[in-house]
Amino acid sequence: MTARPSRPAEPPSDDQNAFLEHAMATYGRQTYNYAYRLAGNEADARDLTQEAFIRVYRAWRSFQPGTSFLSWIYRIVTNLHRDELRKRKGVILQELPDDNVARELPREARQHDPIAQIHERQLSESVASALARLTPDQRAVVLLADVEERSYQEIADIMACSIGTVRSRLHRARLQLRKMIPRARAAEQQQGSTA
Amino acid sequence: MMTCHDCQELLTDYQRGELTADNDAALFEHISTCPQCRAELDGQTELTATLRAAFSQELDMPASVMASVRQSVHSERRAAFGNALRSWLRPVVLAPAAAGIVLVAGVATYVHNGSTPPRVSAEYLVRQHVVHTLNSQSSDRAWNAYLLTSSTSDDANAKTK
Predict the structure, then answer these.
(1) Which long-range contacts (CB under 8 A, 24 or more apart) does B126-133 make?
(2) Looking at residue A162, which CATH number applies to its domain?
(3) Which chain B residue lies closest to A33 (C-alpha atoms)?
(4) Is residue A42, in this structure, part of any structural domain at all?
(5) Among A24, A97, A117, A154, which has the minimal tally of Cβ within 10 Å of its Cβ?
(6) CATH number for the domain running over B4-54
(7) Which of the two residues, A133 and B149, has the higher pLDDT score?
């Protein structure tokens, strides 16, 4: 996935290994599930989770005791996912404007969108295709707010943005999803009846 | 009095329970009398239920992920050790270190040699003492010879007594 530096920032130690093992044992499942929901398929979820724990290992001293480890590793996963999508698409994904409206891509166009294809194979197609049309940040906010049930403050910490930005992204993302999911469902039913 | 526009802005916060008590109460009052805003709230609630249902399945982290992490970490540790070793073997580090070691060894040898007297046997010292005493210009040779041998004679006398 992402390029790694040639060596860790600090010398390895037994404490560092113990920190990693404890993190994987305690938070591995939640981290993997978040990565799976964000990426929409198991292969990418595995890569994201693996890379996230390697980052945890390298940066273990930067974790502040008393803060949420889960928020920390969710932030790592979110950033990794965003970077990965940017690399795959070869463009910088930008926040959609306020007046953005959901648009239904023609099926031919969706067949050339790898993210849409991956989502559609793995998740409920209507939800997956709608989620695939959100920006990575909007997708992360929706998952954290609606599925992971995180508070605005926690989401703001994970996304490294303000609560106002979280509210704005969630509001726009929900508007799009509420338009896209019924359309996608209708299309599914239509395909099912014609098949 | 809360308007429909205000209500729409705050519905998501209301659904998530993130409003202040005053706003929460005002919005509750509004949606109890406004079918349009009530329907909007129901739509948001339904969306949340749809998303949770779509992602309701909890998966275990595959053991292969943990194994891959451990493998990567192990490789990094080995690489870190190799890099550390190579950094110590660089001429810019190795040359001053070698010079320092040679300097310390030289100083230690010098100090050690200067402070320790040469090792001489006791027999040699006694012989030198006897020769010096017998050759002394300011003393009687016979008296000196007596002094050098008297202790032996006294010891012999003490033993016979």
Answers:
(1) none
(2) 1.10.10.10
(3) B59
(4) no
(5) A97
(6) 1.10.10
(7) A133
